[in-house]
Amino acid sequence: MTQDQQEDIVYEDISYEEKDHVATITFNRPSKLNAFRGHTYREVTDALQRAGWNRDIGVIVLTGAGDRAFAVGGDSTEKKSDRVGRGRGVLGIPVEEMQSAIRDVPKPVIAKVRGYAIGSGNVIVTLCDLAIAAENAVFGQAGPKMGSVDPGFGTALLARTIGEKKAREMWFTCRKYPAAEALRMGLINQVVPDAELDEEVDRWCREINALSPTALAIAKRSFNADSESIRGIGLLGFQALALYFGTDEAKEGGDALRAKRRPDFRGAMA
């Protein structure tokens, strides 16, 4: 891709940069802790595919703008029940497309994590081939607090990555885990001081870019083949989730957050 072509790319929710055979996709909504709305998923998917099939790119880096968060899940101003059926994807937002893009591009994808990686942010870290975090990074799932869940890669692939018991703990308690503990669990590859994160990721990118792109692509697809059945599980789960999002129980999580009160899921089920 030429410099002129790069200048034609205009994104609203993300920024995109190509340099030294590395494409960096930055979730650029720092005022909302880089929470994802439907438009964000579409832009990230587009950028992944743009970089993924550019032969000049050897590594893709996903990161978040600012120091407070990598990404913290869905934008609470978008009601889940209102999204369903109003766009691409089972849930009205292309979650499945973005997740598939991370896995399907034939080159390594690295999560560069500062601050909170919660909810869909944690799922993205799970999906990335590698993850390097600053010491201030915090990981975890919050879906059951909000009346939501990721019923595919965010659960089944997480279990393959950190083990069944730890994955269930993460989902069933919604606890938060510091970077050092995430490293011990195997969720991430390395932790470095906050000020050293950019250089450390650059070093990993240089190492990867010195290797055979075709061999790396074959290796990635070989790893993915072993867990590819999770894609089907996820699609089935998202179909069920679309039905669930229309219930009072699911709506209660978002309603409570907007009203700044504790959710009463059991009361909503009555």
Automatic annotation (TrEMBL):
* Pfam families in alphabetical order: ECH_1 (PF00378)
Extract the InterPro entries matched here: ClpP/crotonase-like_dom_sf, Enoyl-CoA_hydra/iso, Enoyl-CoA_hydra_C
Q: Give me the segments passing through the membrane.
A: none
Which domain of life, per UniProt?
Bacteria
- What's the family? Belongs to the enoyl-CoA hydratase/isomerase family.
Q: What is this protein called?
A: Enoyl-CoA hydratase-related protein
Per the UniProt entry, what species is this protein from, by scientific name?
Streptomyces albipurpureus
